[in-house]
Amino acid sequence: MSIVENATQLAHGALQAVMKKAVELAPDSWMPGGVPDPLIAHKHGLVGTQVSRLDGPLKVTGAARFAAEFPLEDLVYAALAYSTIPKGRIATLDVAAAEALPGVVLVMTYKTAPRLNPTPVMMTAPKAVGGDRLPVMQDDRIHWNGEPVAVVLAQTQEQADHAASLIVVTYETEIAMTRFEDAKADRKNASFMGAPMLLEIGDAETALAAAPHSVDRTYRTPRHNHNPIELHGATLVWQGDDLILHDASQCVAHVAWTLAQVFGIDEAQVHVTSPYVGGGFGSKTLWNHQILAAAAAKLAGRPVRIMLSREGVYRMVGGRTLTEQRVAIGAQADGHFDALIHTGVVAMTSHNNMPEPFILPTRSAYAAGSFLLNVKAVELDMLANTFMRAPGESVGTFALESAVDELAAQLGVDPIALRETNEPETNPTTGTPFSSRNIVAAYRSGAERFGWDKRSATPGTRREGEWLVGMGCATATYPYYRMPGGAARLTLTKDGHATVEIAAHEMGMGTATTHTMVLAERLGLPMDKVSFLYGDSKMPGTVMAGGSQQTASIGAAVIAAQTALFTELLKLAGNDSPLAGLKPSEVGGYEGGLCKLDDPSACESYVSILSRAQRDAVSVEAAGSAPLETQHWSMHSYGAMFAEVRVNTVTGEVRVSRFLGSFDCGKILNPKTATSQFRGGIIMGLGMALMEETQFDERTGRVMNPSLAEYHVPVHMDVPEIEVIWTDIADPHAPMGAHGIGEIGITGVAAAVANAVFNATGKRVRDLPITLDKLM
Prior knowledge:
Number of strands: 32
Largest sheet: 7 strands, mixed
Structural class: alpha+beta
Strand content: 15-25%
Shape: globular
Number of helices: 18
Strand order of the largest sheet: 3-5-1-15-12-13-14
Low-confidence stretches: 4-12
């Protein structure tokens, strides 16, 4: 880096620091959320009621069309061949047998692929969403074991798969770094989302050494792979120089922009749709399969459908990397923390920047006299890892909450009481006030409902036949995010029907249903008079379904669009209306029209306003405000997780017999879909606790269990009755008063299970998953 570049970066960093401090110190009223969303005060509307998913009938009848189900004329099917070495060059590539098969239309390799630009990798630009920055089939280089080396297009999927199996490749291998222990000698400080992970407050090591009570442990979590029910698929076609892509995506606008950069065309020439997604969890961004299918379609001049096999997902789509974490806590006899240390190392690659930021929950969970937090990373020759449900928090809470439980056992105090003792008044590492924090209330209601008072304080003392029974708890936390780029188009027709359009996503969480409810309540319309359109890059906004922030981003955009709509309606109403002279902030939607907030008798229906103005419709488009609230307040979702486990004294088998999640996530907009979200996250957490583990062969850099037969996830017999409760206390500074709920469910679960296993057996497992061999 040159002196000029270094000086520029330092100046930019200094400017950001000044702006951040200015936002922190600004009056609340200057911030988004400084005035509570009026929707929070609605007590008898749609919000907070149980509403079944609007897309439910479409899905159960098969009418919902997913990415690999779009019919196109003259369609061909794609299959991929994958490399079998972690690093080197292709020496020979024999595709003759594949090309000779009946039905084969094209075999594309690096020798015949169109020239493509490098893929903009995630977080390097506002709309960049590539999984890695490597050239896609542009040369003979191999960067990881599983990198695609050929694409086959054929008349049927079976023909394409068979042809791909006949491709013969030989390699010139190079020395690869695939062993984690070997790479640890060259560990470096990591950054996440452009920010350094190192945080030091006071001298934590000295405080730890001086503390009368302490724990200092190492915890490990393995690699995890993505396994959405819907495999990664796309159906696409070129129309001249324009690309139409029906994708399984959680970021349609980002994919459109990134593909445009790869193919060197204008963003407007790429049209991405994604009406339904069968699970994403961070994996359904832009990977090589969409790029390769588009390149092959351009060569063949025909539409292409590609759907990765389950093995293909493991070979090409990044997952969660392994972690090795040290958590050390020094405390006084009364339990107050003098020192809190959370450091460790993770593996990543040189071709993207996605360390697992496991220290994130520790930044705000507990008060302490001093902190030392840091993530170091090593680079391996492997598939680039990526975001996976609750990146950082899910594995970070396992280590942190296990250590808190170990300290409670050492002090001889109740684990919940120790957590309450160290409850912070403000964010302990930034000093910013919490926007809303009711985790103590969540713990108390959860403990009462779960029967925590029946827990034996002495491990290994409760027995039922050959089963030892124990209880454990853990804190769950996940930040409130609202990313820039939220925008919406809102149209109201003369018959009183409202439609909102936003490039958002439905991945199974009930987005369309919830926001139909919210818009109906904002406008004072019944739900059947409201349509929520989404999943199309031609719509406004660059909203990503990730970081549990989509609801907030949509909410802020709809608030802006509603204000713009009311402004236009008041202009159209004119001086002959009961609303004459009112400002948009002085009116609200009620029973199909606009009414003065403090005098509901001053009303005019939408139909009347548009009819008098001789307008068929009024349409507005607006963007949400910059998400400054996230710097002014410390904003998080919280949960208190309770597990009861049974451990067999003969086999070592672990069974979770009961689980309860008590959540503090602001206002719950739709209890029916929210309950499903919470339970789904908890089930994923049970998998992390007891069975999920990617078997990575460090000799060859190859994933050895790329199927659901060998990579185990929870099935019905593994999942107990899961009870979900919540505080339902609205955050006055968030749109709708709501926090994200998509990722909070998985956090804290593994720790709660591990702590329950200790309570049942007296054995502490610090290395996930908790398999029977670790308890025998």
